[in-house]
Amino acid sequence: MTGKDEMTQTVTVSASGTVQLTPDMATVTFGVTTRENTAQEAQDKNSRTVQQVTDVLKEKGVAEESIRTSYYNMYPQYEYYADGERVLTGYAVSTTLTVSDQKIENVGKLLGDCVAAGVNSIDSVTFLCSGYDEAYEQALAQAMDAAHVKAQALAKAAGKTLDGAAQITEGWQDMSAKYRNDTTQYSIEADAVEAAGAAAFLPGETQITANVTVTYGMR
Questions:
Q1: In the beta sheet, which residues pair with residue 170?
Q2: How far is residue 211 CA from its own chain's centroid?
Q3: Considering only CA atoms, which of 173, 175, 208, 202 is closest in space to residue 186?
Q4: pLDDT tens across 10-24, in order?
Q5: The pTM of the whole model exceeds 0.70
Q6: Average pLDDT, stretch 21-31?
Q7: Is residue 38 within 8 Å of 130, Cβ to Cβ?
């Protein structure tokens, strides 16, 4: 019969593994805002400009399924006076486009071309990793190795011998850098992109981290 002490001979440790990966893909979000005296004029001008930008994207080889309208808004504009009076001065229309599936080395030139076509706000450039899954598997393996080292040290300190893993729990996984073929973000002024022209974007490296909690038997 197994005694109570023998049944509870376990050690539980948590560990992590990290792999450095250079992003190779990007998602870009930018917009066109137009202002005119009437709502119809603002809308018409906005539609024409957005169409120009879309045409440029397609000419540059961006697939139609990689372009989507992610925001649209129309709002009146007022001029305010010291006596509290406000006067309607016109209307503004804003359309935001999100362009996905872009290679990072093409993003600078693409943005420059879109600004030339009428884009006047750039909200973000999100760097993504197409090799995320492989890197995460490597990080998991590192985490398991680190967990085993920690558990072995604890077992030795307790005068025990470590057995195999009895339970493994994967920790929270940050998938923000994963390229899914469908959010590190940098806000960029359209004027800055226009001045930079085809300037290269430097994504640096992204840390892919895996976390595990492992319970080992001891004897």
A1: 212
A2: 20
A3: 202
A4: 999 999 999 999 999
A5: yes
A6: 94
A7: no
Instruction: List C-alpha distances in Å: 17 to 14, 41, 48, 210.
Output: 11, 56, 50, 5
Q: Selecting from 3.10.450.350, 1.10.290.10, 3.30.70.2970, 3.40.109.10, what CATH number does the domain 24-79+86-128+185-202 have?
A: 3.30.70.2970
| Of 186, 207, 29, residue with least CA distance to 132 | 207
125: burial class by Cβ within 10 Å (0-12, 13-18, 19+)? buried
Q: Which residue has the tokens 């406000």?
A: 86
Residue 194: the pLDDT is 53
Residue type, 80: Y
Q: What is the pLDDT of residue 203?
A: 77
The pLDDT value recorded for residue 193 is 52
Q: Which two tokens stand for residue 89?
A: 């001065």
The mean pLDDT of 193-197, rounded to a whole number, is 51
Residue keyed to tokens 């005296």 = 37
Six-digit token string for 170 = 């994967």
CB 174 within 8 A of CB 209: yes
Q: What does the mean pLDDT of the chain come to?
A: 89
- Residue 130 to residue 22: CA distance in whole angstroms: 10
Q: How far apart are CA 182 and CA 185, in angstroms?
A: 17
Residues in the chain: 219
Residue 81 neighbours by CB distance under 10 Å? 9
Q: Which amino acid is present at 2?
A: T
